[in-house]
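REVIEWER CHECKLIST
Item 1: Sequence provided? yes
Item 2: Single chain? yes
Item 3: Sequence as submitted:
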Amino acid sequence: MPHRLVARLLAALALAGCATLPALHRDVPIDPEATFTAHPEHKTLVLDRLPGGGRGTAVPPGWFHGLRQADVVLVSEGETRAAFWLTAPARVEIHAETARGSASLGEVVPDWDDGAIRLTLRTPEGEAFTTDRFERVNVGSASSTLSRNAQTVLDTRGTYRAAIRDAKGGTAGWMRVRVSPYAEASRIFDADLPKPVGPALATAGALALDSEITWIEDHTLDVYRGKSGGGLEQSIPIGGGH
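Item 4: Structure as written out by the authors:
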């Protein structure tokens, strides 16, 4: 991954202090059909609902273990559950420990269709689930998909949803992201995931999609500042609101 993007992603996930999960908590809408929900807050990724129950955070490992090799770790119930390497935009390797040679817990692999991303979630057993393109739910504005063809940061605003397919092409669930400076969080991720996709792989999916949105915003025009780069959390709301 280019050094600039690595720095941006880690800066976006770096904690401002050793806050605990309750201090980080912010109420975001949770779809009763979703088995996974997450949102960025205080420069960490808060995991509001994990598959199978429970909550957690995805943070740089240095806050808990000193300097280690992983980019991000999943912490739940006070324990490190998985470690993540963001090896390229939207590509994530998962291991059981912060050493990269530890047991693999799966990976997320992206591909693009005319600039529109699809994600493949691979379980530790090698089972693969692939999303469709992320289609815009709120029609009538900007691109119909979450796409690298966006021209300005305004083009990324909206709600996008993708069906999840099993190896035979059958529908196995869905993933969704809401991007807005006016919502409870600038990005809200949720999904109804297949049963083989556990907490670590679910978290990796959100990290992958988050890094893709960051890449898009880094390569589009920030209409508020007249230059490329800068996410929606840095934008100036129009007509108030946050």
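Item 5: Key structural point noted by reviewer: The radius of gyration is 17 Å.
Item 6: Recommendation: ____
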